[in-house]
Write a structure and sequence with these properties.
The chain is of the alpha+beta class. Among the domains are: about 220 residues, no CATH class; about 110 residues, no CATH class; about 55 residues, no CATH class. Helices cover about 10% and strands about 25% of the residues. It has ten helices and 30 strands. A hairpin with a 3-residue loop joins β19 and β20. α2 crosses α3 and α5 packs across α6.
Length: about 675
Amino acid sequence: MIGRGNFSPVLNPTGNPAPAIKRLDTVASENREPDFFELLRATILDGSLGQNTAIPGSSTTGVTGTGATTVFPDVHMSNKTHHILSIGAAIIDQADPDSYPTRIQFRPVSTWWMAFGIESLPYITQLYPASGKSPTTSTLWTTYLLFQLWNPHLNTPVTPPTVRLRLDGSVGIFTGGNGQFFNSSTDTLVTTGGASITLVNANSFSTPTALTSANSTAAGNFAAVPAATGTYVGYRLPDYLLKSGAPNTPHLMLSFGANTAQRFNATMKVDVGGGVFVPYNHFIGINDPTSWIDGAEVDVRAASASTGNPATWTAAQMTQSPPSCFTKADPRATRFGIFQLDANQVSTKSRLDTSLWPSSTTYPSFPAGQPGYGGAVGATGPIQHAPLRFPSTYYPASLCLNTGGAGMTSYADPDAIVRPADARYPNPSATIAVTSTPYNILSGSGARDYWPIILNRPFRNVAELGYAFRELPWKTLDMFTDQSGDAGLLDVLSVADEPLIVAGRVSLNTRQSAVVQAILSAAGWDEITPATVVAASGSSATASGTMATNLVNNVAAKNPSAPVLNRSDLVSRANLLTAILPTNAGGNQAVKARREAISRAISSVVQTRTWNLMIDVIAQSGRYPPGTTDLTKFYVEGEQRYWVHVAIDRFTGKVVDRQIEVVKE
């Protein structure tokens, strides 16, 4: 894609913005260096970008839902510029010290789109409607939109900013249960009008937590739900008179985005100072309203009689089905995120008060029977509006692995490669594979091992890019598998400006395991536990000497005729990283952030571009006897030994440096 915009918010605010990130050949024609986003676009494999919901190889439009409405559109997902901008923004947010997500605007056609970075803040995991008898009129129904929020990151800000949740668009209320659909002419249409609720403390959502009177400040249409259900706070819709129905008892139904001109969304916003709130995440899609919920109809609750009399509020209703709810596989992601769940996973707790796949659920995360959620899509199962590429069953718990395993839900990238997500290597000692799923284990041994991390500091090496969110469920930039689409960044980017020639780098093809051991020794396993480092001695699989020997044996010794050619080969060479550090144990051998300790320690201190040669020179001085023509008659009177060190650029063949060392015995 080539962009030729001339827009500048300062120098040329009336100019035309580029519709896409420029290619490097265009950059070269403009006689300038590429910028950060142009380097990202050129380096991250094109086939690993722009995943959408369409059935691969089909003519589907890539939206969820069937019929007249698109329900959960994916208008932005195929746009690779938006994907790169989102990744770039996430990289920036890892390196900056604040908790304000980066926002980047561009205009692909006529509407400005916005890409968000990721900070350690709460995100929306669930929208849950609840309905019962009106507290003011006993014949009417009152309905609340309840929300569950979660900050899925392992570390939270010391001083979190103020955060609020905002609603936009329309919600229709109608009588269902006997085949009815929302009718704009006869049913009630509610416009939320930008109503918002402010959180008391953004750090109160370190586990999936419902909005309550304790953690939020209710105002306006946001109000407390009747006490019988708990202390929940939600957006109160207008009271509604349910019509009688037959042969089935009538149900109170909602249609989110009932008016296509007023599609529905919930947005998280953060105070950037002075009471100015800006968006940092949408429950669905992006800032373009065409990507919002469009006509998603949800069954909320059955009437107590065929006359439509409202049911009373009880604690038990929070564990029943209906209601159906909207939930997300990863609350941060806009791809393969939102879907409708029609079943309650457990009978003892409200869906609002549990993680998305609690261990006590009766709904499996995939057919092997592991706890989680998911199942058949459509009328025969608990899942509605799954992405079209998953037409029959959808087990979003397994998206955190994305290994293509039998029975699991997984997806191939546009280049047909199935690239693993962050939990690629679940703890093999666990009885269920989804113990590596961030939603599954919230406390106890091994809890939160796989949760993402926000650095909030400058990068110390390029491989720390592995902490940055990749805008896919539970997936960060990949510096730990040989299917990585991101490994090229190790060769293209640096964490500081460097001179053209740098001395002291170690060849990645070295046969000297002791040198590699010194590099690995005392390297940090992850950001959260800086005191836990790679052992300097010992024979365990995670000891520096063992890993160094494995690297040398699988590079220089194993493939003498096929040397590593780039830093990226450390990651992308087949089976190299798993040979260095096997995956047959949990903890440091399984968790992505810890396995990438190898890439972080090695990548910035090694090189593959130069061949370093040492020439042993012995220079002799002396004389020949008069009149001799026999060279063997040379009489040595003095001798000096030199070691000549030469560095040759393997790309150009030029000598980039040489040093002469006088050897004195």
